[in-house]
Design goal:
By secondary structure, the chain is α/β, with parallel strands linked by helices. It has 2 domains: 2-146 and 289-341, Alpha-Beta Complex (Quinone Oxidoreductase, Chain A, domain 1), CATH 3.90.180.10; 149-285, NAD(P)-binding Rossmann-like Domain (Rossmann fold, 3-Layer(aba) Sandwich), CATH 3.40.50. Helices cover 27% and strands 24% of the residues. The chain contains 10 helices and 15 strands. It has helices spanning 39-45, 93-96, 138-158, 174-185, 197-205, 219-227, 241-249, 273-278, 294-302, 321-327; strands at 2-5, 14-17, 28-37, 62-69, 80-82, 120-123, 130-131, 166-170, 189-194, 210-213, 231-236, 251-259, 282-285, 312-317, 336-341. Strands 3, 4, 5, 6, 7, 14 and 15 form a 7-stranded mixed β-sheet that branches. The protein has a 6-stranded parallel β-sheet with strand order 10-9-8-11-12-13, with helices on both faces. Helix 4 links the parallel strand 8 (166-170) and strand 9. It is globular and about 60 Å long. This is Zinc-binding dehydrogenase. Its cofactor is Zn(2+). Keywords: Metal-binding, Oxidoreductase, Zinc.
Length: 344
Amino acid sequence: MRAAVVEEFNQDLSIETVADPQCPETGVVLEVAACGVCRSDYHGWVGGHPKVVPGSIMGHEYCGTVVEAGAKAKHKVGDRLIAPFILGCGSCPECSRGVSNACESAVVPGFGAPGAYAELVAVPYDHNLVFLPETMSPGLAAGLGCRVTTAWHALTDRASVQAGEWVAIHGTGGIGLAALLLAKMLGARVLVVDVVEEKLQHALSLGADVAVNAAQVNAAEAIRDATGGGAQVSIEALGVAQTTNASVECLATLGRHVHVGMPAGDGMMTVNMRAIYAKQLSFFGTRGMPSWKYPRLLELIEQGAVDLGPMVAREIPLSMASAELRAMQGPTPPGTAVITDFSA
């Protein structure tokens, strides 16, 4: 099969012909229809993720059609499916409690297992997979595997956002845009923070109530001023110390910080604990979403309750994935890129 392989960190991915994946007994092999290019992939591409090594095939936001099914698989050849990026084992205590995104035995394609920057991808534990709605394009569906599902879980499970609350979103990349659109659907008032004016204007066009350019003002102070004392919820969508502290410091008393951005490197950073202590804040980590929450989210999208189409700005061939990763070294344009052509 054709795949984009990490041969050297910070260098263009190598487009190669590699062996087709073997079908897991408890899973399937998908012919990949689309795969998102995510900032988490960027961390792996630069050598900042311990499970991405030379020879890895990245790609964890994918959908496709079953071309081979294992003896214990739940799905059959021909099924069109989308995948959460965390594939829970289904039998551990965490999976039994409905929090498969916290499964210690989980498989994450692209991070320790071959991913979907390829024509085919093996998916173990296929009970995690969900049928792709007929009305949803593969390009849009691919983004649900990480950005949208992670944002939805952060807002509804971790933060329990209520209508009328102020939600501050630090970073307007894929997760930030998804959080904006979903928070507005939930009836929240939304502030977005970025350092790229074009991205802030794009967010305003999608319904953000307030935009804050952190390159020009102190973001936390601006948010406290705009909200009359601070946001009730703050979403950190970059994984760096500057935005983490701005997220904590912009909150009102008893506010909720949700850390969504994957920390780079060893993950260590200095955080303003005095703000957390003095304002009695809640500090939540979050990663992914349990697969059982997919049907409700898909139902809302199909019903037109939220339009996530504006998130996908570019559909690209496999050979352009390197350019998208390289662009993440600096300010990026609005919207996200999805690989939909694996032949070029």
